[in-house]
Write a structure and sequence with these properties.
Layout: E1 8-11, E2 14-16, H1 26-29, E3 55-61, H2 64-67, E4 78-83, E5 89-104, H3 113-126, H4 146-149, H5 159-164, E6 168-180, E7 184-196, E8 204-217, E9 223-237, E10 270-272, E11 276-278, E12 289-308, E13 311-330, E14 346-369, E15 372-395, E16 412-434, E17 438-449, E18 458-468, E19 482-496, E20 508-509, E21 514-515, E22 523-524, E23 529-530, E24 541-554, E25 559-571, E26 574-578, E27 587-591, E28 595-608, E29 617-633, H6 657-663, E30 668-672, E31 677-680, E32 708-718, E33 721-736, E34 759-760, E35 769-771, H7 780-789, E36 797-813, H8 816-822, E37 826-839, E38 860-870
Parallel strand pairs: 1-4, 34-35
Antiparallel strand pairs: 1-2, 3-4, 5-6, 5-38, 6-7, 7-8, 8-9, 9-12, 10-11, 12-13, 13-14, 14-15, 15-16, 16-17, 17-18, 18-19, 19-24, 20-23, 21-22, 24-25, 25-28, 26-27, 28-29, 29-32, 30-31, 32-33, 33-36, 36-37, 37-38
Length: 871
């Protein structure tokens, strides 16, 4: 529930200051085009501009001792990325070419036309249960059942496959050149990547990157200089889909829904009473244009000079700029008369410029005193981030050709938003190593952020870590089984300042002219108003971390094992605090009054399964992690606004609405076999089953966060061939089954094919699914369990585990004889496949990692083949 959970990214010692929110203006992501329809994509991550081919290694820092030097920016962990360095000597060139394609690993199989129509006929034949009996037939008509009375009884469209089952190719080309001598060397690279997605209308992402790094060392090696530049551009063309929408999801359309009418025009669908909107036609979205263009520039440099033996001064600086221009046009040809939310054409244009400047002067000292190796580091951080946003909305310009013309709007509205953040720190770190057996690290950091008011602007954080390499002790010298042993522990505190700027101040805003897209010609302009509820007392979030780990190596390190225990206790979490609506706001940014604790275990095992002289090399790696999250304390919880959903000693509920309802669902107890109505437990004991029996403490079923996860890797190589196979697994997940769409089984929505033959049809049936319901009005006592409780109950949930074959890669390195004939230094051909398969003990008809219905294709299966040459 804490604001901000992204780790800090550090590339070659330079902090990559990521944009705190999506580069694409918020209103473009809410997709005014479709009343809940979502545009594919949410902007560009800063990591998109790091070329994977340039990466030499990636290290993840999690414990307090390792992350504390980065202060509050490292509170969620630190990812250290080291890029490939220049190869000294004659310049070498590496070329990497690959291509591949993607398709869904799991795509829900829904009913075909005969199965669907039979289900609908059965639904009307059984009608609604009431006090008079279980079977009360209803006659279908053009309003309640156009699928039975008006549409073709033989037509068939596989809507999940149409919307999300498209093959998506990708292409990648990379060139890297490096060379030079110790005094001056360089590395330069260029990369082109284009990837299509599996959604309809062929959305794609296209990226071009360039990188140059120069390194200089003086003859006496006292002066060292590094200059780097990375530039890139990314184009994204999105698809406007209708998943997770207030309109009926396209994937659940009736299979005989006509996309075109008898005249060859797009069919808008039918407005069915009382069902609401039915049969949304996705082809109306084809003419919607949604594009994003992003340019990124990252400049960095560092210079160091050794003043005296062991005493070095260093200065690091970086500049990052990301500029985004996004356009969204909703032309008249996209207007669907069924979609009353948008009945006028409009165009949106947004710009977002993010700039970040970072300076870090440092002074370090290293020295050895007999058996003591000592080092100290001190430094300052000066960071400034700026965000500049504009948003222009052109309404109903009179012609689709003028959707991007600001002067043509009736009306045209515009807004802008500029924010600035300043961040300053002073830090120090001391390391001591006695006889290469006893290690001590001490760190202190004082961070200041402009996101807090004057009284709470600074926070102090620190850590202490100790390690004992007991395998170096004299009493371990005469044994050969244990080759390495290390015991390590640390304790420290970090902070978090991830909240929007200026929330400690009372901000005012002039709202833009609002134009109703449902009722053209009704503009509304509001007066100057407060845009937030100020909180001058908001302060740093603080996390106290402690950990203990044991690292062991056996048989000359052919077997490596590590085990770690950790605990983190977070106080004053930064989050949104609910308040009474009479204040004019429903929430404000502040500090959560309780404490949240996370504890866990992490295990890693690496084995070299073949001997050092064996030409067959076989390495196995296995890792396992657990985590337990609880609300540790909360003063006066019973009288707070959190009393209904929170409980001390239990995991915090997920803030996501869908995940919350999965964690606190109605408790399904089975069918009433006499009438097919699902039954639910009265969990709060008040004598009735109603809304008080879910989304509350009494309904708690468990946390939606995994409680155990891990991976298993085997790498085998023999005479140039290498094969890597990686499995991952997770336990304790929650997911909604795809048959549990928002409408009940039997309505005009098409459920998963698993429903066929598995639903109640007559008194005495004890089936997997309840009776069918057409959505025709009936007695709430009999209809509410089908429409309100069932789909948000444990009957619609899976809680368990899955195993995924995540990656398989096969490569072959050509031998020297072939390379000599081709005049190459190195040549490798390879093929890989990601997300080959996923398995769970219960057939879910969807990817288990996707919690809610809608994006039912889940992870994409990716097959890639390529060649890498060096000359």
């Amino acid at each position: 529930m804490s604001l901000g959970n992204n780790p800090l990214i550090v590339v070659d010692g330079v902090v990559v200051n990521q944009v705190t929110n999506s580069l694409i203006y918020t209103d473009i992501n809410t997709a005014l085009a479709g009343a809940g329809a979502n545009t594919y994509g949410n902007g560009v991550s800063s990591l998109n501009f790091i070329n994977p081919s340039d990466i030499e290694s990636i290290d993840v820092l999690k414990d307090a001792d390792a992350t504390s030097i980065y202060g509050s920016r490292g509170t969620n962990g630190v990812i250290l990325i080291t890029t490939k360095k220049a190869s000294l000597g004659k310049a070498t060139t590496t070329v990497n070419l690959s291509t591949g394609w993607k398709n869904p690993t799991v795509l829900t199989k829904r009913m075909n036309t005969p199965q669907y129509l039979q289900m609908r006929k059965n639904a009307f034949a059984m009608g609604n249960a009431d006090a008079s009996g279980a079977i009360n037939p209803i006659v279908p008509d053009q309003y309640t059942a156009p699928d039975l009375t008006q549409w073709s009884q033989t037509a068939y469209t596989n809507f999940p496959d149409m919307e999300m089952g498209n093959s998506a190719p990708n292409y990648n080309a990379n060139v890297n050149v490096s060379g030079g001598n110790k005094a001056l060397n360089f590395v330069a690279s260029g990369d082109y990547y284009k990837m299509y997605d599996d959604y309809m209308f062929k959305p794609y992402q296209e990226r071009m990157l360039g990188r140059l790094q120069l390194n200089h060392s003086s003859v006496d090696n006292k002066l060292n200089l590094t200059l780097g530049a990375t530039v890139g551009s990314e184009n994204q063309h999105f698809t406007t889909t209708n998943m997770m929408a207030s309109l009926s999801p396209t994937s659940a359309n009736p299979p005989n829904f006509p996309l075109y009418d008898s005249m060859g025009n797009l069919n808008p669908g039918n407005y069915v009473i009382p069902n609401g909107y039915q049969g949304y036609n996705p082809l109306f979205n084809k003419t919607i244009t949604s594009v994003s263009f992003t340019n990124n520039t990252l400049l960095n440099g560092q210079i160091s000079y050794t003043i005296l033996d062991g005493l070095m001064v260093k200065f690091l600086a970086s500049y990052n700029s990301q500029a985004n221009d996004a356009q969204f046009t909703y032309p008249s040809t996209a207007i669907n008369p069924q979609n009353l939310f948008n009945l006028i054409p409009f165009g949106q244009q947004t710009t977002h410029l993010y700039t970040s400047v970072n300076y870090e002067p440092q002074l370090s000292y290293t020295h050895s005193f007999s058996k003591l190796n000592f080092s100290a580091l001190g430094g300052l951080t000066f960071l400034q981030n700026k965000n500049e946003e504009t948003f222009v909305l052109v309404n109903n310009p009179g012609s689709d050709d003028l959707l991007n013309s600001w002067a043509a709007g009736q009306p045209t509205t515009a807004t802008n938003n500029n924010t600035e953040e300043r961040f300053e720190s002073i830090y120090a770190r001391v390391n001591a190593n006695w006889d290469k057996k006893y290690l001590l690290n001490l760190t202190f950091r004082r961070d200041g952020s402009s996101r807090f008011g004057p009284d709470n602007r600074f926070g102090n954080f620190g850590s202490a870590g100790f390690a004992w390499i007991f395998s170096s002790e004299s009493f371990m010298k005469n044994q050969h089984f244990l080759s390495f042993g290390k015991l390590r522990g640390s304790y420290g505190t970090t902070g978090n300042n991830n909240l929007p700027d200026y929330q400690w101040l009372g901000l005012m805003d002039t709202p833009p002219v609002y134009v109703s897209h449902s009722f053209p010609g009704y503009p509304y302009s509001g007066p100057l108003e407060f845009s937030n509820y100020p909180n001058p007392d908001v302060k740093w979030e603080t996390t106290a971390k402690s950990d203990i780990s044991l690292e062991l190596g056996f048989l000359n390190n052919r077997i490596l094992f590590s085990a770690a225990w950790y605990k983190s206790l977070t106080s004053d979490l930064l989050t949104t605090i609910p308040i009474a609506g009479q204040s004019g706001f429903t929430s404000y940014y502040g500090n959560f009054p309780g404490q949240v604790q996370n504890t866990g275990l992490e295990f890693e095992l690496t084995t070299q399964n073949s001997g050092p002289s064996n030409p067959l090399k076989w390495t196995t790696k296995f890792n396992l992690s657990t985590n337990t999250n609880i609300l540790k304390s909360f003063p006066n919880l019973a009288s707070s606004g959190y009393a209904r959903e929170y409980q001390v000693g239990r995991a915090l509920p997920n803030e996501s609405g869908t995940a919350l309802l999965m964690e606190m669902p109605y408790h399904y107890t089975g069918l009433n076999t006499a009438n097919g109505i699902p039954q639910f437990q009265d969990v709060n004991g008040d004598g009735i089953v109603d809304y008080n029996d879910y989304a509350s403490n009494s309904a708690w079923w468990g946390t939606s966060l995994p409680t155990l996860w891990g991976g298993f890797t085997n790498s085998i190589s023999y005479k140039g061939f290498t094969c890597d196979i990686f499995f991952q697994f997770s336990n304790g997940i929650f997911t909604r089954w795809n048959y549990a769409d928002f409408s009940p089984i039997g309505s005009i929505y098409n459920p998963a094919a698993d429903v066929v033959g598995n639903y109640w049809t007559k008194p005495g049936d004890n089936t997997k699914y309840p009776r069918l319901y057409t959505m025709a009005p009936g007695d709430p006592e009999y209809t509410d369990p089908l429409t309100q409780e069932y789909n948000w109950s444990t009957a619609a949930l899976y809680k368990g585990y899955y195993i995924r074959l995540k990656n398989v890669q096969l490569s072959y390195s050509f031998n020297q004889d072939v390379l000599s004939k081709l005049k190459l230094n190195h040549m490798v051909v390879y093929a890989s496949c990601e997300n080959l398969a996923v398995w769970s003990p219960v057939k879910l008809y969807k990817d288990p990692e996707i919690q809610s219905y809608g994006n039912e294709n889940g992870m994409l299966r990716t097959i890639t083949a390529g060649i890498r040459l060096e000359f």
